[in-house]
Amino acid sequence: MLTNKGFILHDMVAGTLFARYDNGETEEISGSEVGDPYPAFATARHLADLIADRDSNRAPSEEAARVVEFLEAAYLSAEMHKPVNPMLLREASKKSL
What we know:
This protein is an alpha+beta fold. It folds into two domains: 2-51, no CATH class; 61-96. 42% of the residues lie in helices and 20% in strands. It has a four-stranded antiparallel sheet, with no helix packed on it. It is flat, with a radius of gyration of 22 Å.
């Protein structure tokens, strides 16, 4: 973030904050003062917990299928240079089965 009083660099992965003020002073903050760092390994940890039967699935397959349909429509739309309706793709895939 850049302001007329200096700037701040926030590294969410490392959990650090660096500030440089307009008078030249600097400050670096890390640890609990910044808050929790980005949970980069949370997805993999959750998958391991699912496999070990230590947690429930918070991403049901039906919702994941809708996301895939949406992404397929987005890629197809970009390729064709025109809007694509994900619902029409779903109907077309059902007919091809």
